[in-house]
Amino acid sequence: MDKSVLQRRGPCKWELPAGESRRVPVVIFATEELLEEMDQKVLEQASNVASLPGIQKASFAMPDAHWGYGFPIGGVAAFDPEEGGVVSAGGVGFDISCGVRTLLTGLKKKDLLPKAEILADKLFEVIPAGVGSRGKIRLSPKEMDQMLLGGARWAVEQGWGRPEDLERIEEKGCMPGACPDAVSPEAKKRQEAEMGTLGSGNHYLEVQEVAEIYDPEIAKKFGLELGDIVVSIHCGSRGLGHQIGTDFLKKMVSAAASYGIQLPERELACAPLQSPLGREYLGAMRAGINCALANRQILTHLARKAFEEIFPGVELVLLYDVSHNTCKEEVHEINGKKKRVFVHRKGATRALGPGHPDLPKDLREAGQPVLIGGSMGTHSYILVGTDTSEELAFSSAIHGAGRAMSRHQATKLWKGREIIRELAERGILVRSVSERGVAEEAPKAYKDVSLVVEAAHRAGLAKKVARLDPLICVKG
DNA sequence: ATGTGC
What is the nearest nucleotide to A234, using C1' and CA? Predict the structure, then answer.
């Protein structure tokens, strides 16, 4: 990125002032090094977002930001409905409520290693993965609507989990305000057999080791010790979320003119929060959030079954579940005034600081666990929300590394089989339905997640707690 | 990300 137009506001904070068509400044959080590597498109896209009606405070880009559809991935933007604020399908992303959850197992690495191969095989057997993968669950139209209304709470009621899991999920596992009627029949049809499936791309289920602890006090509160084995699941709302995105993008493109919104480009398609289309999208998107929460809950149930077979009596306890593709109604202090705004986080994680009332009681003092998924064969991180992130970026932080090259480029450079062998030599067992998928997800096809974590930590967006290293990776 | 796109 050409940083000559930016003003430095701190060691990890850069600003493009409001002006031209920008109603608010663009704020990029990054080290100088990450900023220089960042795609110029991030600044263009964040600047376009800054021109949308009703935007509050600033158009933000996180240290892991990269070029996305309309809004940058790693973008955060809040809109006030009273000031003509908008909601945008491209501002949420196609994989609605894609996110990460991490489960504690109580096992140590030495317990796991003798059974790692057999556990990898078992997990791969019970977790359907890959493009278009189908699970064992079939939802009738009535059940589909109940799932879209109830999220992970619905899944637990069906027997796929425990009530205490819900305490450790945003919105207690059920996003209010979902409207199944706003979800197209086609979207529902695509999801009929996809509950409890992992999908493809960078979605995974990993068995990981707590490899380093940076904040012993918080780690203890999270139940994390060095050498502990944890399970992380990264996936989203599958075909349903994707179809909702597709459907509403189309609707928002054709409606923008009728709402008198000047779009700097078509991909920024949006609708006023107070318009019928805006409300309809919010209802559908919230249903998509519930679909993702239910999906991760069912995958958790499947992982528990696999673990029970290999390690009888072992209990998988949910540490936390975060979403990183959402638009949520929240109260934030803006210019000294508490306001009700709609915060788009696209490839950005909510990161509530210590004491926030929305946190479960036993985590409130510590702050929200912020789960940062790595890519296959690389580190993942657990961070915690800070006191400063509310003021900095509506309590938001990074979500992961982000790609460094295209899928196509990656498949030219590597063969899946070789990647699997190299990872096995490093003690990482990969199970995947697609060798090409493995090549596309090669560790070096991604940016170094450690650098973006360091930048988020230094910027004050979230604080480092622990690093996780993969041992088993189940992929699509 | 996606019943992948060129």
Answer: B1
Tell me the three state secondary structure of residue A39: coil
Containing domain of residue A284, as a range? Answer: 3-404+446-475
Segment A4-27 mean pLDDT: 97
Flag whether A441 is in a domain: no
Identify whether A423 is part of a domain: no
State which residues between 407 and 436 of chain A bring their CB within 7 Å of strand B.
434, 436
Tell me, in Å, how far CA of A216 is from C1' of B2? 40
Q: Is A375 labelled a binding residue?
A: yes
Q: Is A459 among the annotated ligand-binding positions? A: no
Does the predicted TM-score (pTM) go above 0.90?
yes
Which residue in A34, A32, A42 sits closest to A67, CA to CA?
A42
Nucleotides of B under 7 A from a protein CB: 1-4
What would the pLDDT profile of A132-170 be if each residue is shown by its tens digit?
999 999 999 999 999 999 999 999 999 999 999 999 999
Q: Please give the Cα distance from A30 to A19 (Å, whole number).
A: 22
Task: Note the pLDDT tens digit of each residue in A370-426.
Answer: 999 988 889 999 999 999 999 999 999 999 988 888 899 999 999 999 999 999 999
With bands split at pLDDT 50, 70 and 90, how would you rate the model's confidence at A476?
confident
- Residue with CA nearest to B6's C1' atom: A408
A408 belongs to the catalytic site? no
Residue nearest to nucleotide B3 (CA to C1'): A132
- Between CA A121 and CA A125, with CA A124 as vertex, the angle to 5 degrees is 85
Strand B and A360 CB separated by under 7 Å: no
Q: What is the mean pLDDT of residues A15-34?
A: 97
Helix (H, G, I), strand (E, B) or coil at A3: helix
Q: Is residue A104 part of a domain?
A: yes
Overall domain count for chain A: 1
Residue A415 lies in a domain: no
Q: What is the CATH number of the domain that holds A103?
A: 3.90.1860.10
